[in-house]
Amino acid sequence: MLHHFPAHIPSYVHKGLPRVRLDLVRYYYLALVLSLSMDAKRRADILDRYGAILESNPYSVGRLRDLPFEKQMIQRALLDELLNNEDEQFREQVKIALMLLEMFVSDEEFAVVSKHEAAMKETSKKMENEGPTAVLKAEESPTWEAYLEILQRVNEEQEHTMFCIHRLFPS
Fold first, then answer.
1. pTM above the 0.70 mark?
2. Among 44, 13, 43, 45, which Cα is nearest to 31's?
């Protein structure tokens, strides 16, 4: 079965295409091909369990191993929902959930983030006694640079995902 790309996505792919164009083609192809094999009940189960994880995560990132299914399976269910659900308000929530999937990181990165965020909570408590110097001390911590690098990478991946989603599924 041959799928045709919509007019705003070229039907050719070659090495000279920029990353964004290749990702648009990849996301569109994934959405079309993978959606053919997932039934609505399975998709609803995946989305419900993924939603529960999102609601219960207290950190700015999550651990990949805490996801109820493999990341690709959740992505597949979300893309399938975008293709099959016509409720525009729900589709916007699904787009955000797809973007938030990028916040799940390895155990090593999660350890850095959770340790740093726990230290920041302590710092906010110390600010009552020490004032702004508590914040300066926290910024000198060895995890500060690694923490910022992880959050910056996650943010870039989320922005890239949202760009691709909005190009493929315009509101």
1. yes
2. 43
Phi-psi region of 131 (alpha: psi -120 to 50; beta: other; left: phi over 0): left
Q: Which amino acid is at 2?
A: L
User: Can you point out the beta strands (E) in the chain?
Assistant: 62-63, 104-105
Question: Could you give phi then psi for residue 69, rounded to 5 degrees?
Answer: -140, 170
Q: Which residue has the tokens 């589709």?
A: 91
The tens-digit pLDDT sequence of the chain (171 residues) is 333 334 343 333 334 444 555 565 666 666 565 555 678 899 999 999 999 999 998 888 999 999 999 998 898 889 888 888 889 999 999 999 999 999 999 999 999 999 888 877 877 776 677 666 656 665 666 778 899 999 999 999 999 888 888 887 776
